[in-house]
Every structure is written in C-alpha cells, then in structure tokens.
Write a structure and sequence with these properties.
The structure is a homodimer. By secondary structure, chain A is mostly helical. In chain A, about 65% of the residues lie in helices and about 5% in strands. The first copy, chain A, is built from ten helices and two strands; from the N terminus they run H-H-H-E-E-H-H-H-H-H-H-H. In chain A, a hairpin with a 3-residue loop joins strand 1 and strand 2. The radius of gyration of chain A is 20 Å and the shape is globular. About 0% of the residues of chain A have low confidence. Chains A and B meet through helix 3, helix 4 and helix 7 of A and helix 3, helix 4 and helix 7 of B. The first copy, chain A, binds a DNA duplex (30 and 30 nucleotides) through helix 3.
Chain lengths: ~240, ~240
DNA sequence: ATCCTACCTCTTGCATACTAGTGGGTCAAG
DNA sequence: CTTGACCCACTAGTATGCAAGAGGTAGGAT
C-alpha cells in the first residue's frame, strides 16, 4: 500500500540538485516543512519513508535528522522512531530567553557603536524595512509582514559582523514562528509591532544603549504574548 | 606502516562502552581532545583513521564530526579532508559576544528574581565555589581552578532553569578554553578572577540587575584580555 | 475475561561497499 | 629547469545490508 508522502513536493522543488550535498538540502526541506507546520508536532517521520520520498538512501536523511535534533526540531528515540518535537511552554520560554539575550546585546552594541556612520546605515536599512512593513500591513499581507519582520531582526544582527549571532537568533526565532503559524493572529498586531520596531530604531538612533535594550525587550515580551491563548487553542501540539 | 594514533588512548578510556551510542561517545572524545589541544588547530583528522582507532566503522565517526563542525570545532572540506579549526580573532570575539550576552542575561534574571530564596540559594552555591577556588589558588592548582571556574558559570546558568542556556554558554566558553590551554598564563590571574567572581555574587545578592550585569561584563572582558598576547606567541594556530 | 508469552514487524545504530572528486607525484615534452 | 598531462592514492558522500531493541498482536494458559 502506497503511503501518503510526508512532505508535499512542490513543482519547484521536485528533486534534489546535484551540486550540493543531499544531506544539507534534505535538512532544509524538512526544517521548512516543520516551521510551516506541514509536518505536525508529534508526527512520526521515519528515515526510511523520507529516504524513499527524496529518492535517496537513508544515510543523508539520517544525517539531516541528526542536525534537526540538535536544534530541537525533532526527537530521535533509538529503536522507536523519530518524531517532530511538540511544543512545550518551557522550551518556548527558553528560546525567548536566549533570543532576548542576543537581540538586546545586538542593539546595545549597535547603539554604542562609536562609528556613527555604521549606526546611521543600520537605522536607514531598518527604516526602509519598517516602511515596507507598513505597506504590507495596509495590504493585510500577513506572510509578507512576517518575512519583513524576519528581515528586520536579521538586518540588525547583521551589523554585529558576527554571523553566528544572526544564525542563532534566526534559529531561536524559528521555534516561535512555528507556534505562530498555528494561527493567524498576526493581523491584529500590525500596529503594535510596527510602533515597537520604530521605537527600537529611534532608540538606536539616539545612541542610548539602555533605551535600545529596553525597547527590544518590550518588543520581544509582547510578541510572545500570544502564548497566552495558543496552547488552549491547540492543546494537541503541546506536551 | 603503522601511523601514529590521533588521540592518545588513556587507560580509563581504552574502549567505548556498549550502553551508549558510539557516535555520541566519539563526539565527546574528539571534543575533549580538541579543547585540551591534543588535536592541534589545522591538523587533519580523517574519518578512516579515527574509525580504526576507535575500532568502529566510519559511520559513527562521521556523525560525530558533523556535530563537531556544527559547533565550529572542525571544518569539513568535501573530498579533501576534515581539519581541526584554527583560531581566528573574529571567531573568538564572536564567541565572547554570544557568551557575554547570555551570561549577562543570566545574572540579570537571577538578580531580579522575585523569589529571594532562589537568589540566596544561588549566592550560597557560588560562594562555596569561590571558597574552593581560593583553596585552588593557594595551592597553585591551575587545573582545579579552571574546573571550578566552569562550575561557577554553569551553576549560575543552571538557575535559569533553561538547560540550553547553560549548554550554549559551555560551548562558547570551550572555544576560549582551547585558546587558554595554549599556555598557562592562568596562574597570575587568580586574584583578579576571584575578586571579579565575588563582585558578581555580591551584586546578585543586593538584587541589582545593573550592577550584576556590569560585574559580569567586566569579568568576561578581562578574561579575554589574554588575546593580546596569545596570537603572537602561537601564530601557527591562528588564521 | 485476564494475563502472560512468543513472535513478528518496524524502528534506529552500525558496518561495509561503492562513487566521485581532489591533490600530489611522476614522467615526458619543450 | 620548467611545465603540463596523466595516474594513483586518499578523501568525503552515498547506497545497501545487517544487527539489536522496542512495541504491538495473536494465541494459549489460567
């Protein structure tokens, strides 16, 4: 009996390209499928099934799954199976803690950067993003808005010149994006998010480390407020 | 011709235990060998050689190496070889940035913890460690001192109740420990480190987030000061 | 009806074999 | 002596097969 494919193969991604390691490509596919909730929390994803679907052997799939387990997206239970991680309040709060620590450090460093040109460059780049976000909000385009939100935080992190900082923030943010993709509450938050982003940039512009850090803190705490309702709406995805 | 073993097999660790995945054990062995500078920066470590040495196949070794490359300890060059990462100022400063961000957040959270009992418990635990460190310093036991230093920072992080925070801090600290193990400058720093640790705990005790964060910042910046001399002493290990 | 046991199937962990690409060394041509 | 082409040894990437353990199920004993 033919089983349902675990991951829908979109036209543009039917196969794997030959010029990059298969394991790395598979890692990306599965990660995206998990973030977009195509693979649901608690769902079993066996190495064999995925291998057949990608048309490769178990080896690269297995290596991809090991990496996914490192970033907490799947859990490998020896001799029992591999499962998409469920949400837990603790893990989400942990991700928030790590993210806030890093992002506060990012804006603090930026705000106190003695080279004012760099600061202005960052402010300019972020203000452009905020302008685009206003457009997305006016169009009620939640997806575009969320991508620009990503862009905003990644741009800020990029100015540290420390690539791993940006990638850590991205990884921790991804856990939250997963939760957020459970529902589209985002719509009602456009205005608050926009004003918070603007407040962060304004504080950076004035060069105040304290105000920048505080503004970022407020923003992140607010974003995670949807955790008050989501677990009740989807208890099946929480531990 | 028999080649030199890459990793010296100490008596207590001749073989792998059977009750834990081999890949995970091998990961630990290689990581420790890299931190202790038994495997030198720039050195090639082939999967085949390691596999023979551990008496296993390439598969678990390979999986261990993938994980080590994730935390920046080795670099895998396809079809060319796997190498122990060299130091670079950028990477070390990046590790410091991440570590400082996290550790500052840790003491901030602890200092502002409304439950005073928790704060006192943490203070007590850390003061015990400081006392032990004083003993180690008096005995000029650099190794014990360093382990207690680890213990100090891990204990603080443990009070966040977020295990990944502690493990991130440990990982970032490891990069610095590698550098530090290049030479034993540590001896001359006992007093400064001790007083800085004491200052951190004192600030936490008073419940001041700002003072705690500042004390931690000062401590970390100071620790990384040996970077002023090490690269000149061992340029061969730096990019 | 309930519990225990044997077994069968599925899982991941590991071993082995093969593929393809890189780089060095050799040797011949200029 | 220099340079270029070829070959060979070695590398990581992937495929495949086997081992060992977990868990469900059927069937028999109580």
């Amino acid at each position: 009996m033919a089983k349902q494919p675990l991951i829908s193969m979109r036209p543009e991604s039917k196969g794997l390209s030959y010029d990059r390691p298969a394991a790395s490509q598979i890692f990306g596919f599965i990660r995206d499928a998990i973030i977009s909730m195509e693979l649901l929390p608690g769902q079993m994803i066996s190495e064999t099934a995925l291998a057949q679907q990608f048309g490769v052997s178990r080896t690269p799939v297995r290596e991809a799954l090991i990496q996914l387990s490192n970033i907490g997206f799947v859990e490998v239970l020896p001799q029992r199976g591999t499962y998409v991680s469920k949400f837990s309040m603790e893990k989400i709060l942990e991700a928030r803690f790590i993210r806030e620590a890093l992002e506060v450090a990012v804006v603090t460093q930026l705000a106190t950067n003695p080279d004012e040109a760099v600061r202005l460059e960052a402010v300019d780049a972020c203000e452009k993003i905020i302008a685009d976000q206003k457009t997305a909000a006016a169009d009620d385009d939640a997806l575009a808005f969320q991508k620009l939100d990503d862009n905003f935080h990644q741009t800020l992190a990029g100015f540290t010149q420390y690539p791993r900082v940006a990638s850590f923030i991205e990884a921790e943010k991804a856990h939250m994006d997963r939760v957020r993709n459970l529902s589209l509450h985002v719509g009602g938050q456009y205005k608050r998010i926009l004003s918070q982003h603007a407040a962060i940039i304004k504080a950076v512009k004035t060069g105040s480390a304290e105000k920048s850090a505080a503004a970022m803190s407020v923003h992140l705490k607010d974003v995670y407020n949807i955790l008050e309702v989501i677990p009740q709406e989807h208890p099946e995805y929480f531990i």
